[in-house]
Amino acid sequence: MNDVAIAGTAMTRFGKFPAATIRTLAEEAVRGALADARMSAADVGMVFFSNAVAGVITGQEMIRGQVALRHTGLLGKPIVNVENACASASTAFHLAVGAVASGSVDVALAVGSEKLTHPDKTRSFAAIGTAVDLFQIDELKRWTRGESAGSPLPMEAEDDDSKRSFFMDVYAANTRAYMKASGATVEDFAEVAVKSHAHAALNPHAQYRSPVTVEQVLASRTVAHPLTLLMCSPIGDGAAAVVVCSADRARRNGLDPVRVRASVLVSGTDHAPDEPGSVERASALAYERAGIGPEDLDVLEVHDAAAPAELMTYEELGLCPAGSGPALLRSGATCLGGRHVVNPSGGLLAKGHPIGATGCAQLVELADQLRGRCGGRQVAGARTALAENGGGFLATDTAAMAVTVLSV
Question: Given this structure, which CATH class describes domain 4-118+234-407?
Fold first, then answer.
């Protein structure tokens, strides 16, 4: 198996861009990543294109990658369309890594592009809400309300789904359970949002670059108790691309490659409460393959679609014992200047969350951190990094989970 490296990265700014399309966004990210890798489209052996919701938002299905990349010089290459909910782009990267590691190609490109905004916001919410088991949607709705499987759904059960992403109901239910188990408070979740916005203020690609206070987070409108608006990731557009190649090829191009130590993808399970979920299973495999432990991580990008998820992920990744996520946050260990800096990009909460681009954007941030290119948000001496990117829900588990370990 070949040693695999990241040779080039780029991303657009994340935000709400009415004039943008998945094509214009993808073109910008691809141009930047290829230039960063000192390569051209002719060097690319295979492309993995990630998009999650174009079918619902614009109606474009089946050949999204070929359409988005039509004017990039990549047509004629094998283009694989990848859709795996919020883990779509990290799945595309996982496939690109596999193609290079196996020797099928020497250079592969993973690119994620998403146009999530729409003049009718309910269409965006509806698109996000499809990443659950629709055959068992009534069962999931009962669970989010803390109701038994046999209880009827109230008549108004559908009303709120058109006003917000149903995923926030799922996150809220998980959050309430976590509060009981850990003693976490809404103030703890507000502190996560404060940290994310402080980091994003230093990131020119972030959707929101204004610091916020705990008081502002708590005063923002309630989305799904106990989550307020500033505890939830926003709707936005954007693209990110990563050039993957053999380590030898990167060195021949005069680059200092970022080494891919582990790339793990698992699916969620209907596991019992005392059994490990997808984050624990994926991270355990990643640590084993990379030959490291959580204590070795300098910088992380984790899937904080809602603020409490960051605290839960601290524990699931083994950064701290169960129930200790709030204490780890309060210690300052996960802030810039701390031992394990989490989401220096601003995370999904503040950098933004254009679903099909998020996984690659996490890797852009981490590769830049390891190459010392992050300016005011640079993690000093960063040498080992981890990305955790999940998508969709099955019962109480994430449907698709990718964990990647990088190092220099």
Answer: alpha beta
